[in-house]
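User: Hey, my collaborator sent me this sequence without any context and asked if I could get a structure. I don't really work with proteins. Can you help?
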Amino acid sequence: MREHDFEVSLVERWGEGLVYLEQGGAVDVDVRLESVHEGILVSGEAHGDYVGICGRCLIDIAAPLEVEFQELFAYPGEETSDFEVQDDHVDLETLVRDAVILSLPFQPVCQPDCPGLDPVTGERLADTDSNSLSSDLDPRWSALRQLAQDDASASAREPDQNP
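Assistant: No problem. I've predicted the 3D structure and written it out in structure-token form, which is a compact way to encode the shape of the chain:
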């Protein structure tokens, strides 16, 4: 068994969605290599920072990323495998890159309760005062609003008649 810690400099951008790891950035990899009967069992962790934009309000975000991975690199033989030991070496690039990219959030947000953008003005709701927001409702809801107002005023006029 061997353990290695190393830093990988990214020569290209990892990820194609709203968030990604920047070209020129780095990923710290802690890996453990164990000899087993079928090949070499590789397990470890990768740490890095992703950047991109919030999926709701479109501001820039950056956050740390930690991902665990494990894969068996099989000895060459009759059966073909996606990961094989080549000349007593294992190539971790594909394994680490796939694990990191698949762990990136699909719909990243700047904060868990990000309200997003105002549909009328396009302003970021977290930055605006709730009183200054557009209060125009869809006209199809006006009858319901009137019904609710009538019900509230009627209950305010009637005294409670419970026995």
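In plain terms: The radius of gyration is 28 Å. You can pass these tokens on to your collaborator as they are.
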